[in-house]
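Entry 12.
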Amino acid sequence: MRAILVGVKTRDRTEKDLKYSLQELEGLVEALNGKTLGKLYQNRPVPDPATYIGRGKAKQLKELAEGIEADTIVFDAELTPVQITNIENITDTKVLDRTDLILSIFSERAKTRQAKLQVELATLQHQLPRVYGQKGKALSRIGGGMKTRGAGEKLGEIKVRTIKDRIARIKKELEYIKKQRYQQRKWRNKNPDIFRVALIGYTSAGKSSLLNRLTKRETFISEQLFATLDTKTSYMVFPDINKKIVITDTVGFVSDMPQEIMEAFMATLEEVEEADLILHVVDISDENWTEKVESVDSILKKIKVHTKPQVLVLNKIDMVIPSPEYLEDSDATMLSGDRESVIISTKEGWNLDRLHEVLKKYAVQKETIPAS
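Predicted 3D structure (tokens):
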């Protein structure tokens, strides 16, 4: 993929928000082994309903794509079927929106049956409104004459029905998987010696690396966004308190998570709902880390788990300071305010003993809390 990124600064969006979002979009392109060749910005109060950026800007986009030999135009927004069709007709270039890009990554990375079904479901739900929008291009090849439009509409209706049938079958199979997972969690919940921890956070915050360090298991690690999609569970044991800590790594988040993806990956988030403690992992070396914390917090509120016990794990401090001697107890409080937090370096192993103590503390506290 040789891409041009397109962002629009509307009245509801600051220039800082736009630049931050386009930077993330570039990371998503890289996650698909693509290359960003250029970026096009525009200021307008509201997006154009026909082309999102206006016909004049779309023609400028066509010239830019031809000049730098780009084969894909990626919009940092969710486009309507009409907008995609119109822009492709003007630019003669493939057009993707933000959701298309994320779904393409998910489709490549999904490994388990559940993850693959969830990705397919999200993709079909995203494609469904576009079926009739494809009529002009895809269905016009049926034939000419008076009956072309009617045939196109009929094929469109057939495609809609096929997609809806497939969605229904996927939901049924996912419900069966969900019941199986519920039974597994139910067994774990019955064991008073098991303390459940969920790792959550922005994608590329270092959750998989932390899982490896804490449990001494090997999981795939990459700096790319959405390197791993499937829920991974492992455990560690504290013999001195007779507790087994079950730790689950969940899929990372991005800002403005598309609704289709939120719904499709709710099964992954169910692990968070069942957790006794949430470890919110943050890349402290990222200049936008506070905004990313807010993005994750908003998602936790949506799934109604924001009141659970939570510890902010400020990771990758080795990229900020040269040695652990520079760490002080006051640093975490200064960075996180009233929230309980621990500053660590998973890579170098700094302060992991402090994180162990935090886990022990909450595991012991669970014993003193009456079961509801």
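Annotation: Residues 316 and 345 are 5 Å apart (CA to CA). Residues 111-170 form one domain.
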